[in-house]
Specification:
single chain, alpha+beta, OB fold (Dihydrolipoamide Acetyltransferase, E2P), 3 domains, 5-stranded antiparallel beta sheet, 9 helices, 26% helix, 25% strand
Length: 330
Amino acid sequence: MGWLAAFALFAWYYPTDHKRPISQVVPSADGSANGPLVEQAPTPAEAIRQAPMLRTTTAIDLRSEPTSDSPIIMILGPNVPVKVMAQSGQWHEVSVASKTGWIERVYLAENDPRQATARKSADPAVIQGSALAVDGDTIEINGTRVRLNGIDAPEYDQQCEDAKHFTYSCGWQITSSLGKFLAKSKPIRCEFVTWDQYGRFVGNCTRADGTDVASWLVKNGLALDWPKYSHGAYASQQSAAKASKLGVWKGLFEEPWSWRAEQAERSAVAKQGLGIMSSQAQASGGYSCEPRRTCSQIGSCKEANWYLSNCSWGGKLDRDNDGIPCESLC
């Protein structure tokens, strides 16, 4: 019996409270403050209530698994509140509209307005440090997202066409190029301009060698001057990049702000019910003007010509205005 006594002494001296899973610890039934503790795991409803809130920053797919090729559960529009339940790498498992699925962290922002208010109450003049590229016009320094002022770049999952009309992932390529550019001269210094609608720090950023980040992107055809916010500050760099057919100017692309608007419109149609379209949108041959489509989503030249002739947005398929839509198909 000696080994039993030794085990009991070990259990008394070395309690297992330090290995508790995430749960609630409540007083024991006798109500004594110093009594034994009983673990009570939160119910699913309590877990959801306790989870942090974020919101979508653009129209995005809610997927069944933390991979970009997993089945789509539903399409969420921008500014949709979601509850974060778990994390796997760059993916967050979220709860929304009684459904649970996965969204990439890059498409989520803080939802609690008190968090943005707290930041705004003490606007930082400068943020400085090593930077990572989040997408073509957003970087992250010491955990803070910084939106580059005055420019707009293709979204991370946006597609473009090259000079031979082949589709390529321009948003991903631009993000990769920006990351390499930032790494060549550290630290990155960003001077505060304002806060955007998603609560992000908007700033004018330069590398340690003095190179303006936004200007470099526009000059190399990786981003567009956004007159709405830049007042034409990068217009000359953009004209030079376009004339030299640098970056996205070597082929065909959709302005990022137009692309986002189309994604939001698609999301709005999806919310009305996938596959349900108005009678005005129905057409012979099974084609429809809703939702909008890009060339990469069209299966034939015949289909592309139908959209060009019948849909208000069909002209966007003919980028060079030669009367031929989606030249990779026609």
